[in-house]
Amino acid sequence: MIENKTSFRWDVLLLTVLINLFAGGMSVNCMPPLYGEIAQEIPMTHTQWGTLWGISFLPMVIITLLGGMYADRVGTKWIVGCATIAMGICGIGRAFVQEFNHLLFLMFFLGIGFALLLPNLPKSLAHWFPSHELGLANGLLTVGICIGSGSALLISGIYLSPLMGGWRNVMWAYGVSCITLGILWILVYREHHTFQHDQVNETFSFRTSLSIVIRVKDLWLLMLARFCIVGVLIAVIGFLPELLTSKGMKQTLADLSSSLIYYLNIIGVIAVPLLSDKLGLRKIFIWPCALFAALLVITLGFYQGITSLVICALLGLIVGFIPLMNTIPIEMEGIKLRYAGTALGLLLTVGTLGSFLAPMIGGILIDATGTEIPTFIFWGILMACGALFILPMKETGGRIIERSTSVSYTHMTLPTTWSRCSSG
After folding, report:
1. pLDDT per residue as tens digits for the range 246-272
2. Residue pLDDT, tens place only, 1-26
3. What is the pLDDT of residues 379-417, one digit of tens each?
4. Which pLDDT score is estimated for 423?
5. pLDDT at 401
6. For residues 27 and 180, is the Cβ–Cβ distance under 8 A?
7. Does residue 183 have a pLDDT over 60?
């Protein structure tokens, strides 16, 4: 981890937060509140909607890993910039679709850009922030996507669509904002001085990087945990507004439900990583919160109205541990910053597959049973499984790193001391 500080790290943080807000948050999450309006022009079942919502996460299964590995070799400047611009172009393309398959196609390619951003925004921060600030930096990065996602869910259908003349113009607005930020990133961002392209190109091997990373058992456990936990959250957020509206809840309150998950998550993703950085521990903040979140998800299937809003607020607050899941691989023994892009890419590749499967399976269950209760029970059990995968993992964080460094230093100095004593 690079410990020297520079004021430019705050510029990097601001840019990454804005890109996460508009590209990762608003451009993707504007879809659920616009579902009813889109479905009037492009009819679809719950299964089709679950597939459409989850398809943007499917490219992460392959692209995230490749993007992370490639960034380990060439840096993040052009990957992040071009991915953000591509998301803007695909976002604008949604304004012209007339058929379900065309919309599905564009959501898939929107997901490719998002898949390239996921490992490389945290990697960009890891180059500029020291270890004791990295958890908070990743938390603030998540704040960006929380604000963007929550705002998109809250204002896209109720306010922006009527104001701008329909859902197609909303797609235009989000697309242009992404293109603008992508160009700004390319113009402003620079690689950290410790990253030398020529040196890395001579020594870096994709095969070597991957072979090293896949041997870390705890990374596989973390991937399975992310598969369950993030998959459930994405599914709940995507389906909740439409399901609550179908049960008679006002559209304003239904959209607010999913927004509350993101808005309260802003507090969570700052408080939990800050406390984690303070104590120098990661794992202990994840599995207890994930178990509580599983209970909240199951409960959400049985309530609506104000009760559902309270549950959503608690759920958003309690899952503030998610940024820690992006921080842990960088601190794992055998990975560190050198293979961070590959490790984060692999984490998101396997871990985010759940973001495609959980909504799709949820849609199938709803169409098959005619009710949402079995779906929320399934999602709750899946969330609990995520917590169980965390339990066998070794603890990481600043306290463990310092202890490991201290032990290594002791082992290095003892032989020298012993030889001096012997010669004396």
Report:
1. 888 887 888 888 888 888 888 887 888
2. 444 457 788 888 999 999 999 998 99
3. 999 999 999 999 988 887 655 555 554 444 444 444 433
4. 43
5. 52
6. no
7. yes
Cα 79 to Cα 69, 107, 123, 407: the distances in Å are 11, 19, 12, 38
What is the 3-state secondary structure of the chain? CCCCCCCHHHHHHHHHHHHHHHHHHHHHHCCHHHHHHHHHHCCCCHHHHHHHHHHCCHHHHCHHHHHHHHHHHHCCHHHHHHHHHHHHHHHHHHHHCCCHHHHHHHHHHHHHHHHHHHHHHHHHHHHHCCHHHHHHHHHHHHHHHHHHHHHHHHHHHHHHHHHHCCHHHHHHHHHHHHHHHHHHHHHHCCCCCCCCHHHHHHHCCHHHHHHHHCCCHHHHHHHHHHHHHHHHHHHHHHHHHHHHHHCCCCHHHHHHHHHHHHHHHHHHHHHHHHHHHHHCCCHHHCHHHHHHHHHHHHHHCCCCHHHHHHHHHHHHHHHHHHHHHHHHHHHCCCCCCCCHHHHHHHHHHHHCHHHHHHHHHHHHHHHHHCCCHHHHHHHHHHHHHHHHHHCCCCCCCHHHHHHHHHHHHHHHHHHHHHHHHHHC
Of 322, 234, 262, 260, give the one whose Cα is nearest residue 51.
Answer: 234
Of 391, 401, 162, residue with least CA distance to 283 = 391
Q: Span 178-207, mean pLDDT?
A: 70
The pTM for the full model equals: 0.73
349-365 exposure pattern, b = at least 16 Cβ within 10 A, e = fewer: bbbbbbbbbbbbbbbbb
- Is residue 158 within 8 Å of residue 297, measured between CB atoms? no
Share of the chain above pLDDT 90, in %: 32
Least confident of 30-34, 209-213, 322-326, 420-424: 420-424
CB atoms within 10 A of CB 212: 16
In which band, very low, low, confident or very high, does the pLDDT at 109 lie, cut at 50, 70 and 90?
A: very high
**What are the backbone dihedrals phi and psi of residue 293, each rounded to the nearest 5 degrees, phi first?**
-65, -35
Q: Are 301 and 375 in contact (CB under 8 A)?
A: yes
Please report which confidence band the pLDDT of residue 378 belongs to, taking 50, 70 and 90 as the band edges.
very high
Burial of 219 (0-12, 13-18, 19+ CB in 10 A): buried
Tokens at residue 205, please? 């091997």
d(CA 328, CA 15) in angstroms, rounded, equals 23
HSE of 369 in the Cβ direction (CA atoms, 13 Å)? 14
